[in-house]
Design brief:
With about 150 residues, the protein is of the alpha/beta class. The protein has a single domain, classed as Rossmann fold (3-Layer(aba) Sandwich). Helix 2 links the parallel strand 2 and strand 3.
Amino acid sequence: MKRAIFPGSFNPFTIGHQSIVDRGLAMFDEIVIALGVSFEKGEAPETRERMETISRLYADNPSVKVVCYNGLTVDAAKQYGCDFILRGVRNMADFEYERNMADVNLKLSGIETVILLTRPELATVSSSLVRELQNYGRDVSDMLPKQ
């Protein structure tokens, strides 16, 4: 069974996250959505609510498991028996960062990372970039999320 962990701050209301999980399901037998949480910072109530929302979203899909983790992604991957780390990127800056992290994770744990680009029609641009482009008079309507 091929299992991948999708770590981080999955938010069902953020454009692109659900797309990455759904595309990952075509590649893997199981996806573990792992919400990174720092219980020391008091993030648990917000994370529990998000966990419940995501669990409801995938309630009919036994191939998706939703968990919380604290610490390194590679440790969580091992804990949940994942062979791959699944990451999604929206732009080239994200891609460079994730590629570098994939190299580090592979060296630390031997776990491969699969990086998927968010579908172009779901891509979002950081608000700071949008503001900067607007400042130079650029029409940014084509960069905004399409609902």
